[in-house]
Structure formats: structure tokens, C-alpha cells
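sanity check this chain:
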Amino acid sequence: MDELISQKVKFTFSGHDTFHCRHLWLKKGFDFIKKGEKFSNDDAVVKLGVGRNMVSAINFWMKAFGIIDKNNDLTEFAEYIFNDNHGKDRYLEDEGTIWLLHYHLVKNNIASIYSLIFNDFRREKIEFTKDHFIAYVLRKAEEYNITQINKNTISADFEVLIKMYLRTDIHSKDREDTFSGILTEINILHEEKGRFGDVKSLNSYSIINDEKNIIPEEVILFVILDADIFDKSINLSEIEYGRNQPGSIFGINRTGLVSKLENITLNNKFKTFGITFNDHAGIKELQFKTKPNKFEILDQYYVN
């Protein structure tokens, strides 16, 4: 894993051995750790039923998605989703769970490319190529006085990201394909094949800001509550533009956010949490009588 650090920032690339995260890997890894096993064990290859490089990749993605922490212990989020007794979506059959995984991947910044693209780069370029992104990382590295950086490593990370979010034509024909990326269902990354400006051979990509009506309100509220930057109120601008907030991570525009927040305050199942969405002197704020437990909010979603 290439870890590039300055006094201000840390970029981490690679670590996945060029394998993107498959749909069943996180549950497989969760069960493995739950049994007291370790990825460093000699028999991990046999017990996981994959090659040695894939063992390393599963370990990496478990950390990147927040399923295990830096000590390789299972997280509260992991138990909430994957536990065999009370897990809410053990086999990732609900699209709301995929949005949550996307959020954790970006927020955790174990694989820096996801945070860089969704929090930062896409605000500079709505439509971009791999070369655009590589140039952006090199510029940021120079800005932060990071001297050792490998363009091939960044390129490989970009290719893995594409596999994570885009379903190929071959995968589309095989509905039971287990090798497609874990995040293809949310359709947040769009591809324009073989065209960018005057260069006909380059594929371009975009992450469009729109209303994203398909994202559950509970997922939006979970992401807001997961931040430690506020106590009982947070303003709309922070929700829209703040790092790791819904507007940034999910690409939701202001119209979509206002609609979601208004629906939350009007929905009877949220009444007990004392949530209001107010406008004081032109500053819109989401306010809480008492800041709710983020997992209790998700309970309202998974109960259905």
C-alpha cells in the first residue's frame, strides 16, 4: 500500500492487489473474523476459499468499508448489517445498504481515491477522464509537498474504482455474476465511452448532482448524524457542501436535500426524535431537540 503523507494530508493508494471488492466478500470476511480467524493465518486461503492475493484484498476492503477497524476488530456498523442473529441486510439485498457502504468507503479514506473524487475532484470537473484525475492528484501532491508519488499506482486505483461502480457489458448479460463491483447498483458514476473532446479513444466519466430521490431519507439522516461537527443543529450549506456530508458524497443538489429534509420533519416515524427544519434570517438549519442515535434512525428503515 502506498501511503503519501504531508503535514496537512495523507493519501493512501493501492493495497487491494488490483482486485475490486466483490458482492459477497464483506459477508465472507465478517464471518471469518467472527469465528476468531485472522487474515494473517497460514490457513486463511483455505478457510476463505480464495487465493493469497485475494485474502489480502478482502482484508483491505474490510477496512476500507469500515467493517473492521485498524485493530482488525469488527465495527458496530459491521454487526448492525452482517450479524447472523440480528443483522439488517446480511447478503446486501437492499439498495439502501449499498448507499451506506458507499458512504463508509468515501468517509473512511482508507482508499483515498474515493474521498478525493467524491469530496473534491468532481466539484472541479463534472466530466473527466482518468488522465484528468491523475493530473489532479499530482497537482495536489505538489501543493502538499508530497514528493514520492507513482502515476501507475494512481492509474491502477482508478481502474479498480471503475470496476466497483460500473457494470460492464459482460456483467450486464449475466444477472448472477458474482464478480461485478459491490457498488454498481447505485448507479452514481456514469460513463461516456470512447469520447472526450477531440480525443475519440478516451472514456469520460461523470458524477452528476441531481435530486437522488432513490436514496432513503433514513440513510441521509444517518450520514448527517454520523458527523461529530455539530450538536443539536446543522445548517443546509454544511449538509450540501461539507466534507463527507450527503451533498458531497451522494451528489445531491439543494432541491433534493431540501425535499429530503422537509419529508423527514413531516414523517410521523421521525416525530419522536424531535427533528425540525427551520429558516432563520435566510439560514436553513436542521435542528434536533436531542441528537438521535444514528442506528435508531436506520432501524426505522430496516423495520420495513
